[in-house]
């Protein structure tokens, strides 16, 4: 729900006719009028896909499993070469850590080729954002349980266009059978934030999938973009999930990604100077100038409201109008580090809402990739190395078994040979 306005955001993906452009926070397809109140504000519900993704998602015939999904709400989105009986359920087992790591690398490559960061953020938000803290029973309480893969939930107004996100991640799911949908959705969302320049999200995995469409939550649990009383609406939705005012504002900052398309969401301009050339399919209106860069510019731009080419929804504007929200919005506009810290915590909390973990404590896949690189450990020169060079040196160093915390393994045989050679040399010179 970090991007509960997701429906209004369009990722850089250029979608097929069924897709829509939305931001990770506009989970609902941000349509105007009464319909708007029924749509979520999570990450882009309707996205515009890049040319490469466009070809990938151009027709259901390329994804036979989508035909199954449309024809039978009881079937998850799977490849046609899998048996229907196998498609109707997903094993409730912990995800395999090794496969999770590999899946994360595949997601990174997907992001680089399709610029689909906003829609993947929205995918994770929408699966988790249905959580109701007042319901204890799993999976009736909703939350991050993989239910969004079923057609009945995909057809919720707030989820318009998310079928495109499923098309993007399904090949990864097919490749890694040891990863649950619930984990894959949250892994994709967190990775998208990090790869867009955002903070490292303290994630854990091992979420169990629901097994049937009957486990999907009822429609109407996600936020809208233009409700009559924006502040009251945001609190009603997010308080139900157990989130507070600080987390509402922090998660709203995810609107820094994506754009909205009026023909799909009912909000935004058809095109601006920032979106007319893409990347991805051109058009739509973004919240920020660099709408694929995760930073605190959303808060700066909403506060100033000087650029008519940047989108400001009622639920955006209220962050600087409501006294409680304003405290955090002002803080984040001035301090990006504070925003990143609070966002990472809120996103992680959101991703765990309603989830059932196996094992109960969850599984961590952190591998040290986020630890600080200290150039002094690799170079004695006075000049600071570039980030690219640091990464290259580190990769080569770790490839032979080293790390900033662990010296290279000792080659005792080689050391012995060196000692013998030195002793022999000294004996020779001393003897003469």
From TrEMBL:
The chain crosses the membrane at residues 412-431. Residues 1-29, 255-286 are annotated as: Disordered. GO terms for biological process: cellular response to oxidative stress; hydrogen peroxide catabolic process; response to reactive oxygen species. One of its GO terms (cellular component) is chloroplast. The keyword Chloroplast applies. Residues 7-29 have a biased composition (Low complexity). The keyword Ligase does not apply. It is found in: Plastid, Chloroplast. Keywords: Calcium, Chloroplast, Heme, Hydrogen peroxide, Iron, Membrane, Metal-binding, Oxidoreductase, Peroxidase, Plastid, Potassium, Transit peptide, Transmembrane, Transmembrane helix. It catalyses: L-ascorbate + H2O2 = L-dehydroascorbate + 2 H2O. Its cofactor is heme b. CDD domains: ascorbate_peroxidase. Gene3D superfamilies: 1.10.520.10, Peroxidase, domain 2 (1.10.420.10). It holds the Pfam family peroxidase. Belongs to the peroxidase family. Ascorbate peroxidase subfamily. Plays a key role in hydrogen peroxide removal. This is L-ascorbate peroxidase. It comes from Turnera subulata. The lineage of its organism: Eukaryota, Viridiplantae, Streptophyta, Embryophyta, Tracheophyta.
